[in-house]
What does this fold into?
Amino acid sequence: MPFLGSPLFTDADGDKLHEECGVFGVVGGRDAAAIVALGLHALQHRGQEAVGITSFDGLEFYSRRGIGHVAQNFSSGPAIAELPGIMASGHVRYSTTGGSGLRNVQPLFADLATGGFAIAHNGNISNAMHLKRDLVRRGAIFQSTSDTEVIIHLVATSRYPTLLDKLVDALRMVEGAYSLICMTNHGMIACRDPLGIRPLVMGRMGDSVIFSSETVGLDIVGADFVREVEPGELIQVSLDGTVTTHRPFGAQKARPCIFEYVYFSRPDSVMEGRSVYAARKAIGVQLAMESPANADLVVPVPDSGTPAAIGYAEQSRLPFELGIIRSHYVGRTFIQPSDGARNADVKRKHNANRAIVQGKRIVLIDDSIVRGTTSLKIVQMMRDAGASEVHMRIASPPTSHSCFYGVDTPERSKLLAARMDVAAMAEFIQADSLAFVSIDGLYRAVGEANRDAACPQFCDACFSGEYPTRLTDVGERDVPAQLAFPVDKVA
It folds into this structure.
């Protein structure tokens, strides 16, 4: 995760929100690093630019990190052989402008007075720059530009006697979102921030205890799901398998990220006992009830729009058709060096199924609109393929605010919904009509009666602008006063 203030999204980037990382850890049993590599395969969608694994054999820590996918770096026997031990943790990440390079690839490792300490982090520390300035004044030397390294320095400088107490002391000083997997000479510590913004689950496989950002990580290694790591909970697992739980932050109302249901998590994951796939279908049903369209076909924008499109088609009793075919062998659009190359890349990634859409009135279903540039190209693609009408339906409310909790959102001025109302957005993407699911409709689709306006059940700041924590590094000048989190209500 980059420090706040670094450009998370540039003009060269793609037009999708991306979760910046996924974490996986195992303690106990043999071949821990091989299990971690397999688990990271299932979490590859959470970060596709870089991957790292650190292991511990009871005496020494070993690390291997690389740019690219898990399979590119950890598919060979020799690569895994470099990581011996019965405990290992891993991390997949998206790099961002100024944040790429091996020095930022996690897990990060440091030799502390208490022994070795490795940390893998999903989320973003929203006061990292503030803390870093103070640490540097006190003599700290940073080796990366990652906000995660701030936690290491806070642990290193804590005056508490035990590593666990040092970690708790450090986490009391940070704001924002974190799901952490930490390794020490004595075992593993997994924890979530007090609001549980980023996900983390616990499983078992024989004598091994496993932690993963999503349940699909447990599925792929054959582990049994035990439970979610609770918000504000620290779970300590010793090398002999003893599990101890700690709740040092008191009880607070959880605010998990609702966009995990919309897009980030894999559809075959389960969150809070609810199938992500079922939730996405329910969003499509809700969207059809709120915003029907007089059309012939329902067409998903693959792959993220597919479950919602199925729900929309079922509710509206319209045929569901694959009017867009996606190539799975094309990289992310933002790596292309020029506008022309990026535009060509959109066509290489998505191609209209002309035989299906020609002469038809179609409803396009996508998960979100960020800048609007991709939606514009997709709508035009449908028209070029002969569609007579193109109605766009979005399976989330308008994304009108930036995320500061671990998602690479553009700055607010570049978000289409921050600059235009829905009618203007429809004109911009050249659709015959455009509608978004309501925020209450989204809440109903994920199992709530309605959104609690006084204290929302989820973090939905990207839609509402109501941030559940302080944003120290952003400052009041960057957050409208009416949307800033009140100081007297900070979590």
User: Anything to note?
Assistant: The chain has two domains: 21-256, 275-445. The two ends are 21 Å apart (CA to CA). The CA atoms of residues 44 and 75 lie 14 Å apart. Confidence is low (pLDDT under 50) at residues 1-13, 332-342, 476-491.
